[in-house]
Amino acid sequence: MVANAVDLGESLTALESLTIDEFSRKVIKGASGALADHANPLRFNFFCVAMRILFEHTTGKLSPDELVRQCAWFKANDDAGRPTRAQKVQYAVQGGLTDLFVQKNLDVDAASLRRPLISAVDELSKQVHGRETNLIEGLEAQYSAVENVIKAMHAFLSAYHDCRNAIIDPIREELDDAAVDALISETVLAVDELASHHSVDEVYIHNIEVHEIGPSTVKYRAVGSLSVTLQWGSNSDLRNGDGAELEEGFPFQCDIEAPLDSPWNLDLADTMYEVDTSSWFGHEPE
Fold first, then answer.
1. Is 181 part of a structural domain of the chain?
2. Which of 134, 141, 159, 232 is the most buried (most CB within 10 A)?
3. Cα torsion for 10, 89, 118, 108, to the nearest 10°?
């Protein structure tokens, strides 16, 4: 059964929720607007232009050529060593992880989505460069083609999110603890510069995500806020009324980078954090 206009509108809305940034959402609104323009005989072609932009923007942002070429699974297909569309899709979904690892350990069948996606993108290209001989004009045929494109893009972006969720879910609590430990066990230099002494009272984790699956590492990122007590003067100064204390809070970001072949072994991970104290100097936090 071929989808109707209502079904396709709902599918585009669902696709919009999976996109990676505001520009992508703007592009989907453009695609939706093109489909709704029933008076335009080239509305399907303009829809294809928008979806081609969405694909190229997504793979361009998630899959820089130089990073794709660093992956162990990468094989050059020409003398220039340019990654193919399929390789850029592969990197966007799983970074340097192999298809076998992703399917076996993450239960994500990333390999099977690439062929229909590339086929759909090839069809988009034909319609972007429309000719009299290849225009799709019948409403039913257009809706069928639109449905195929949306399904392929939905599978692509779903796999992108599924892969990251499957990586982080088994160690979410460990990552939470690792971020807290890093901020409590070490001197926070950005805060230490504000007063004679400081103590970290509480660390609040607001969100943890897979920030990047690279060619050789997985980078997890925790963001949150730090509650600290700033102290001027010594403890005896405080007792004598010559010192001062002030409670403050600052946002932080903590990156935990683990090797790709052991993404759940945090003993092998490097931890880096940054505390934003710009509000202390009267600036808005970045």
1. no
2. 159
3. -70
The yes-or-no verdict on residue 155 having pLDDT over 90 is: yes
Q: Report how many domains make up the chain.
A: 2
Structural domain that includes position 141: 5-169
Q: What angle do CA 120, 112, 139 make, to 5 degrees?
A: 30
231 in the same domain as 132: no
Last residue of a domain, one of 169, 194, 222: 169
**67: in domain:** yes
For residues 140 and 224, state if they share a domain. no
Q: For 102-145, how does the pLDDT look when each residue is reduced to its tens digit (9 = 90+)?
A: 999 999 999 999 999 999 999 888 888 877 777 777 788 888 88
DSSP track, 64-105: -HHHHTTSTT---SSTT-PPPHHHHHHHHHHTT--HHHHHHH
- pTM, 2 dp: 0.88
Q: What share of the chain is helix, strand, coil (3-state, %, to 5)?
A: 50, 20, 30
Residue 257 and residue 231 in contact, taking contact as beta carbons nearer than 8 Å: no
